[in-house]
Input
Amino acid sequence: MEYSEKIAQWLFWTSAILVAYVYVGYPVALGILARLFPRASKSDEQFRPAITLLISAYNEAEVIREKIENSLQLRYPEKLSEIIVVSDCSSDATDEITREYASRGVRLIRQPERLGKSAALNLAVPLARGAIIVFSDANAIYQADVFEKFSRHFVDPRIGYVVGNARYLENKGDSQSSQSESLYWKLETWLKRTESRFESVVGGDGAIYAIRPELFTVLLPTDINDFLNPLQIVNKGYRGLFDPEVICYEETADTFSQEFRRKVRIVSRALNAIRRVPGILNPFANFRHWWLLVSHKILRWFAPFFLIGLLASSVALSGTPFYLYVAIAQGLFYSLALIGWALQSRPKVPKLISVSFYFCVVNLASFLGCIKCFSGDLSGTWMPHRTQSPGKS
Output
């Protein structure tokens, strides 16, 4: 056997094992370990700490009134709750609408120039009066009992953050982007719930997660707060929980292009967040969380490189029937994805095609996110998809 063929075989089996582990092996192993070795935590349904709801907004006039009305209807003692809208120098009517609710206790904190969400949070968090801060997006509509269900977990001093359950509504048009994102999110929800049972949920959710404010660390403009903060909190010795009963609702992106841009941004900044907390990669500090982080996030972000290696090596070895069949199977799968790309404007597409396309979109976004991170191409600001025109990003 020639040396080049040995290298191709090594690349094939290494890539195949890693791909199989990321998408099958890890969920199976996690499910077994969480059942055999769960990590207990305390809760108290009567625990009522003061809570600040911190709503991040940039040009959210379309949704901010509904969000504030929803927030005012949350079930919690009025003297123990606070609502803050932090505006990243919005140029539409976001601030004016928010000021209409000043008499009902809603505070507006306006950033004098547009510096991004991280800078806005740096400005607002020290001004919050709650013992717990709940971070929210302007388009996330909460169930009435969110504060009550969040608060019960913080009776345990070892819990540093709690992540809620963002459920995605298929928006108008019932696009294949909405369908695929909803399917993807069902898997993510299961992983979060199981990780939480085993050790700590990996990362937060900007739409609905809560932390102890003393554990908030000042952010850089390029930081992604709902991933970096949980890493920093775990690195300090705390745990993070996922509570599927803490529910909010959001619409998915209308198109794959919007979803694609969002995922590229998330991956690039989340990967950079790990570089900001190097201690989190020490397996001897907290092996359970290290395994969860590497398996759920890092290896998945690098999955497109494994997929490229798998395709290239199987083509290189296609003179052997086994590798030829594997190469053909991959070709058929990617052909389905190309069909999905061609049909992406249609509201209804066969699920196998839309899932194949979405899988490729997610992995291409991860690929570009990794490239952007390692090239230092990170952005500290972004445009909500509700306010984007076709030419904006």
